[in-house]
Amino acid sequence: MTLRKKNASVLFMVYLFRVATAVLIASVVYSGADYYTLKFWNTQDSHVVRILDIGQTIRESPSEEEDEPFKTEKTELTVQSLTGKKRGQSFRLVATQMEGGGVKFERGHRYILVSDVFEDGSALYSIADAYRVSSVVWVIVLACGVLIAIAGRSGLRALLGLGLSIVVLMWGYIPLVATGSPPVPLAFLAVFLISVFTVLCVVKRRQTRLVALLGTLGGAAGGFGAGWLMVMFWHLTGLSGENASLLFTTIPGIDIQGILLSSIIISAIGAVLDVGISITAAMSELVEYDPEISLTHLWASGIRVGGEVLGSMINTLILAYLGTALPMTLLISNAGPDLIGLLNDPYVGQEIVHSLAGTLGLLLTIPATATFFVFREKLRSRRSWPEGRLNSDGGSFEESDLDDDP
Distance (Å, rounded) from C-alpha 87 to C-alpha 35? Predict the structure, then answer.
């Protein structure tokens, strides 16, 4: 066996051991999460149950007097309670749900049983959903473990940046907005903190972190400005979706249009960070490879690299928005509106704002990051822009050289 093959085999065994360790840790966490959730389940009107037996299913069609065209099905179930005062007890019930739209029942699987108690003391039981808490925890821990096992410290830094970003949004931005704080200024503060944490955790070269941060913030600010103009000129209120309407009626006085504007910058910051950090890393590699590279050539190379990254990131961004809005898109398509009605629909308008603002943010991040990097390099090396365009070895090159692929 050659040295190269031996090293490859050792490396493979190391990765295999790390992945196996991640699986073991995830399994331990799964057991702990399952025990904790079932033991301390404190919801009074719901229980976690395991289906022991599945009886007959009766399908019922709606009567002619009923307006709803949906068929229902009633299934006899024998379940065992896993939480609460009835823990360990088994009983039978009849679960009613829409045909083809409810939870699929399987023996041995666990579900969430909801009970409605009426004034006369009688109770109505129904299966609300599948129980998946411990499984979700297992998958999250396993994914994080495999990322660290494969990527090492880089994966750990990426997870740290993601964790800090989630903390900023879930324990900072969202509670403050829910209590009446202005959403747009808080969104800018949240995006700034997320960008700082991500750059500090992901960018290895300390001297280029400020460049990545400024380029990202510049692109994000430009995208937000474009989104703000579209929202104002199109008179979008942010009340087109059911969730937004429910939020508006649940929390009186909340700035729902500000929520829409905040969602523009928050939803795009991940992709903008990706582009800004990628361009910074590529330009840093160029400078390390050739410290005497001309600033003009360096800037043009950063723009070309950004153009390559931009194509895939725009595709990712647009498809992410389309996938999220797919149910509503199907409803609009099923209604069969004409093109004019479709373009005037406020929900469609909001999705267009998200898509175009995010795309413009990505587009502006490229020249912003490249320009900041070149000025940083100019200040660091005290070099001036050449009067004529020069190759890194000092020779001249033609105008078309900047347009060619490197």
Answer: 13
Residue 39 confidence class, pLDDT cut points 50, 70, 90: confident
Q: Which two tokens stand for residue 156?
A: 């750990």
* Whole-angstrom distance, CA of residue 217 vs CA of residue 351: 22
- The pair phi, psi for residue 372, each rounded to 5°, is -60, -40
The residues that bridge with 53 in the sheet, in sequence order, are: 78
For 272-325, what is each residue's pLDDT tens digit? Answer: 999 999 999 999 999 988 888 888 999 999 999 998 888 777 777 777 777 777
pLDDT in tens, 144-166: 999 998 888 888 988 998 899 99
φ/ψ of residue 125, rounded to 5? -110, 145
Instruction: State the CB neighbour count (10 A cutoff) for residue 42.
Output: 6
- Cα–Cα distance measured from residue 272 to residue 13, given in angstroms and rounded to the nearest whole number: 37
Q: Which two tokens stand for residue 358?
A: 């995010």
Give the list of residues 6+ apart from residue 343 with CB closer than 8 angstroms, or none.
349
Percent over 90 (pLDDT), the chain: 36
Residues linked to residue 92 through DSSP beta bridges, in sequence order: 78
Q: How far apart (Å, rounded) are the C-alpha atoms in residues 131 and 115?
A: 16
Look up residue 210 and give its two tokens. Answer: 């400020």
